[in-house]
């Protein structure tokens, strides 16, 4: 089974 | 004072069509260098980043930076009032709470203006680092649209696997499986029909079909699309706007539990 990751876990909020 | 005039107004209509599926609202950042927009969808899985350079407009004036927060559904309603061959001008005063869209027919005989209320949006800006991607695939945008559409009938996810030989798109679901393989072919009559792969190392990544299908709303903007991939980082899907800028989408991968 796969789970969807979120962009916030890859890119930092500036 | 901000004013941007685009003779090829249809381009602006297409840009809006390419983002309004993913975003309900967004802030258009207007600066002397051009107009940019960066926003995530409400689930924070995908991000739109677009740039329209000032030199791509027929007239462009931006005395000081302005942020135009807009409800994109409402903006789309107004853009629908412009014909494809209309000249479109966007205008806003400094610190204004409205934006004005002016549509002119090519013969100047009909001029329409629509004023829309602006919104104060709390937007999170993400810092996206420059990345050397393991695989970069350039392919016809229509082909990418077709593959995403076809495979979304089979499953909710698409696995994109890229090697030197080619790129493979795969989906699996209750009814069975589907695979589409594209070989690299740079020797075609028309440049836009080429499939070109630049590979440092092979990658295989899984993405949600739903978002890929939304990205393909940008297909009318460019004959080619570029997919940039590395293991365990977001995919970049880029449509280049001729002499104008780009629309880029970022999509977080699905990972094995």
Write a structural description.
The complex is a heterodimer of chains A (14) and B (257). Chain A is an all-beta fold. Chain A is built from no helices and 2 strands. In chain A, 7% of the residues are buried. Chain B is mainly β and 257 residues long. Helices cover 14% and strands 47% of the residues of chain B. Chain B is built from 4 helices and 20 strands. The model of chain B has no long low-confidence stretch (mean pLDDT 96). Chains A and B meet through strand 1 and strand 2 of A and strand 10 and strand 20 of B.
What's the structural blueprint in terms of helices and strands?
The complex is a heterodimer of chains A (14) and B (257).
Chain A: E1 2-4, E2 12-13
Chain B: E1 2-6, H1 10-19, E2 25-31, E3 34-40, E4 46-53, E5 59-62, E6 66-71, H2 72-79, E7 87-92, E8 98-104, E9 111-117, E10 126-127, E11 135-140, H3 141-151, E12 157-162, E13 166-173, E14 176-183, E15 196-199, E16 203-208, H4 209-215, E17 224-229, E18 235-241, E19 245-251, E20 254-256
Antiparallel strand pairs in B: 1-5, 1-7, 2-3, 2-6, 3-4, 4-19, 7-8, 8-9, 11-15, 11-17, 12-13, 12-16, 13-14, 17-18, 18-19
Helix pairs in contact in B: 1-2
């Amino acid at each position: 089974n796969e789970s969807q990751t979120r962009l916030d876990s890859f890119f930092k909020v500036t | 004072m901000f004013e941007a005039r685009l003779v090829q107004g249809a381009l602006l209509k297409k840009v809006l069509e390419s983002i309004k599926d993913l975003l309900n609202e967004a802030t258009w950042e207007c600066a002397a260098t051009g107009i940019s927009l960066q926003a995530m969808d409400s689930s924070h899985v995908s991000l739109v980043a677009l740039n329209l350079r000032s030199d791509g407009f027929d007239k462009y004036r931006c005395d000081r930076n302005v942020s135009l927060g807009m409800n994109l559904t409402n903006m789309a309603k107004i853009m629908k009032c412009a014909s494809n061959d209309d000249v479109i001008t966007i205008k806003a005063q400094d610190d204004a709470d409205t934006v004005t869209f002016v549509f002119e027919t090519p013969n100047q005989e009909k001029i329409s203006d629509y004023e829309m209320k602006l919104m104060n949006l709390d937007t999170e800006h993400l810092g996206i680092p420059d990345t050397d991607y393991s695989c970069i695939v350039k392919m016809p945008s229509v082909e990418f649209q077709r593959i995403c559409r076809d495979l979304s009938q089979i499953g909710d996810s698409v696995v994109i696997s890229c090697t030197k030989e080619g790129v493979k798109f795969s989906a699996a679901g209750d009814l069975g499986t589907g695979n589409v393989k594209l070989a690299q072919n740079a020797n075609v009559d028309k440049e836009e029909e080429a499939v070109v792969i630049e590979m440092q190392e092979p990658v295989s990544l899984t993405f949600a079909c739903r978002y890929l299908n939304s990205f393909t709303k940008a297909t009318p903007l460019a004959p080619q699309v570029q997919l940039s991939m590395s293991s365990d980082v977001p995919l970049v899907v880029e449509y280049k706007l001729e002499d104008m800028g780009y629309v880029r989408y970022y999509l977080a991968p699905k990972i094995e539990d």
